[in-house]
UniProtKB/TrEMBL annotation:
PANTHER family, sorted: FORMATE HYDROGENLYASE SUBUNIT 4, FORMATE HYDROGENLYASE SUBUNIT 4-RELATED
Membrane-spanning parts: 12-32, 66-87, 93-111, 131-148, 160-181, 226-256, 276-294
Keyword hit for Disulfide bond: no
Protein's name in the database: Ech hydrogenase subunit B
Species the sequence originates in: Denitrobacterium detoxificans
Pfam families found in the cross-reference section: NADHdh
Length: 295
């Protein structure tokens, strides 16, 4: 079997495994997040498996859609999110992973536009602005990864004698900043696509989505959370698979910090979000790339 076919087969197997494992981990993280948020707000909060029961209830509802393509777009968005996770966790091409997860976001946006709801269209426009805000920094992260490892393959990080954070601190700072947008947390959840129900345009992107379609959206968010935390952990692996434990610890610390930020900062308008995200990308990511170019 040729190396290309082997790589494709490896990615497909990893995608299937990721499609099974990631929703479970994402569901547990979502349930734990609700509990932690409730404690921060002085409430008891729901049970750990409440997100699972919510999605199960949605799956049991009668299928209802405003058109025939909404569900197709959401299924494509979920599929590409799982494929991106398979590419990343199989040690595949990081740049390809970035492009695929962006494609997933675009299908999610198109699904909202297809409903022709004014609320959904506003949410879709804001979701597009979010993508415009974080995408430059995500690309800078991939460039820094290549400069440090001399490869876009994620598995190359395990060949290093020091973690990427030692050479890519600027890229990590930039990723930490835009992670709030990627995880749909305040102050940057301007499209109302997070799990909170206290925003100002009903439910934004998902206004017209219900039943199994909305369940797929929730599962997609779980899958994305696991993938993005994987990006955080990538900065802390080196030398061998044992360091994966270190990566998991740092990823969970960052995840807890995002929950704290979500519960302590009010949402901002899209103009500051776009300006701050691009400024951080140009300063933190740009300087990091420039320094590595001369090392």
């Amino acid at each position: 079997m040729t190396p290309i076919l082997m790589a494709i087969l490896k990615t497909l197997i990893a995608t299937v495994i990721f499609a099974v494992v990631a929703p479970v981990i994402g569901c547990l993280l979502a349930g734990l997040e609700r509990i932690i948020s409730a404690r921060m707000q002085g409430r008891v909060g729901p049970k750990l498996l409440q997100p699972y029961w919510d999605v199960r209830k949605l799956l049991e509802k009668e299928r209802a859609s405003v058109n025939g393509v909404e569900g197709v777009y959401i299924a494509a968005a979920l599929g590409f999110a799982m494929l991106a996770g398979g590419i990343f966790f199989s040690g595949g091409n990081l740049l390809l992973c970035v492009f695929v997860i962006t494609l997933s976001s675009l299908f999610f946006i198109i699904a909202a536009y297809s409903t022709r709801s004014p609320y959904a269209e506003i949410g879709a426009a804001r979701e597009t602005i979010q993508v415009m805000s974080y995408e430059p920094m995500v690309l800078f992260m991939a460039i820094v990864f290549y400069q440090v490892t001399h490869s876009f393959d994620v598995v190359a990080a395990f060949r290093l004698t020091h973690p990427i954070i030692c050479f890519g601190l600027g890229a990590f700072i930039g990723l930490a900043f835009i992670l709030t947008i990627k995880l749909r947390k305040s102050p940057f959840d301007i499209s109302d696509s997070g799990h909170h129900g206290h925003q100002d345009i009903v439910k934004g992107v998902t206004t017209e989505m219900s039943g199994p379609t909305l369940a797929k959206v929730e599962i997609m968010h779980w899958v994305e959370d696991v993938l993005f935390l994987g990006w955080v952990g990538m900065f802390f692996v080196w030398g061998g698979p044992v360091t994966i434990i270190v990566a998991i610890v740092f990823a969970l610390v960052m995840w807890f910090l995002e929950i704290w930020i979500d519960n302590n900062f009010a949402r901002v308008k899209w103009q500051p979000m776009l300006k701050w995200a691009w400024a951080v990308a140009l300063v933190a990511g740009g300087i990091n790339i420039a320094v590595l170019a001369f090392i």
